[in-house]
């Protein structure tokens, strides 16, 4: 696992946060999305006149969500490769 660009180092780390960083990031992304969508839904339901402005404003958040979800996707992809390698399977080629 050490040859996988240092990703195995995070799992072997003595620091608890380093070992849990990927799941923590996933949970933070999920909670942030839930809070944002809940707030948007609440405003649309309680003040329908603002719905058009709220939906238009959501478009400006697309870039930040793209970056965050891209990072999360890389984390998931790399962790899947680590699990496959630890089970004796050949890791998929890295692109």
Spell out the helices and strands N to C: HHHH
Low-confidence stretches: 1-5
Strand content: under 5%
What global shape is seen? elongated
Characteristic terms for this protein:
membrane; 4 helices; mainly alpha; transmembrane helix; 95 residues; disordered N terminus; transmembrane
Overview of the structural elements:
The protein is 75% helix and 0% strand. It has 95 residues and is mostly helical. The chain has a domain at 21-86. Helix 2 (16-46) packs antiparallel against helix 4. It is elongated, with a radius of gyration of 19 Å. Keywords: Membrane, Transmembrane, Transmembrane helix.
List the helices and strands and how they pair.
Layout: H1 7-12, H2 16-46, H3 51-59, H4 62-86
Helix pairs in contact: 2-4
Brief digest:
It contains four helices and no strands.
């Amino acid at each position: 696992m050490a040859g996988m660009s240092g990703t195995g180092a995070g799992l072997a780390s003595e620091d608890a946060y380093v070992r849990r960083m990927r799941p923590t990031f996933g949970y933070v992304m999920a909670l942030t999305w839930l809070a944002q969508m809940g707030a948007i839904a609440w405003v649309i339901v309680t003040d329908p006149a603002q719905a058009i402005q709220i939906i238009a404003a959501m478009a400006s958040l697309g870039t930040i969500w793209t970056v965050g979800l891209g990072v999360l996707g890389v984390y998931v992809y790399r962790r899947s490769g680590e699990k496959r390698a630890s089970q004796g399977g050949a890791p998929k080629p890295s692109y």
